[in-house]
Amino acid sequence: MWQQVVAEYCKACDRCQEENKSTGKRLGNMIKIQNPSRPWESVHIDWVTGLPPGGNRSYNSCLVIFDRRSKTPIFLPCHKDDKSMETALLIWNRAISWTFIFTNIIGDRDPKLTSALWKNIRQIFGAKLSFSTA
């Protein structure tokens, strides 16, 4: 009973809250992502991994490219251990060739998206990489 009373008092006490500093890793600034003005201008890229091998090439992952404007997904079968070059070719051949050049790519901090190759590709096309918080 007393533990609960003390805990409630500390939660309500301004001085206790000021002195209680977080020791965890500092979070980055949250930046609102602008709504795209046209389809395929801004996309979210992520991988679904751990799938059972399937198809004649035994694909075990799926690259998902999601258009933020039209809410249209593209599902591209791939391998979990594909390098950034294979991923870039897959996106170029199967997505960009029939959509538009993406100007904003949202993704996690996967090495396939943060490699030097992708940095050069983004620089050539003027695309910006934004990181998701998930």
UniProtKB/TrEMBL annotation:
Matching InterPro entries: Retrovirus_Pol_polyprotein, RNaseH-like_sf, RNaseH_sf
GO MF entry, a single one: nucleic acid binding
Top-level division of the source organism's lineage: Eukaryota
Protein name from the UniProt record: Integrase catalytic domain-containing protein
